[in-house]
Amino acid sequence: MRAALADEKLIAMLLDRLERISVDSIWEHRASGIRGSLLRVQDQLQDGKEPDPSSLRELIGASFHILR
């Protein structure tokens, strides 16, 4: 349960930062897709469902790549 809370906080932070990417940026389209996927994972966590760990790791990695 503790890991899910940490995941939720990290996902919320990533969503907030990905949302700030300028619409003029070449990364915005990709960020939009990642945001959608993160929102689905966030919904799963809030519903008490465990997301696929490898998919979550990929999403988090892709999010940090875009933000970098």
Task: Offer a quick outline of the entry.
With 68 residues, the chain is mainly α.
Folded structure, characterized:
The radius of gyration is 12 Å and the shape is elongated. It has 3 helices and no strands. The termini are far apart. α1 (about 1-20) packs antiparallel against α2, α1 runs parallel beside α3 (about 55-65) and α2 (about 30-45) runs antiparallel to α3 (about 55-65). By secondary structure, it is mainly alpha-helical.
Terminal CA distance reads 29 Å
Helix count from the secondary structure assignment: 3
How does the overall form come out from the CA principal axes?
A: elongated
**How many β strands by DSSP?**
0
Mean pLDDT: 91
Structural class estimated from helices and strands: mainly alpha
Beta content: under 5%
Let me know the largest β-sheet: none
Instruction: Kindly state the percentage of residues in helix.
Output: over 70%
Measured on Cα atoms, how large is the radius of gyration? 12 Å
SSE string: HHH
Regions with little confidence, pLDDT below 50 for 5+ residues? none
Question: What structural keywords apply?
Answer:
mainly alpha, 68 residues, 3 helices, 76% helix
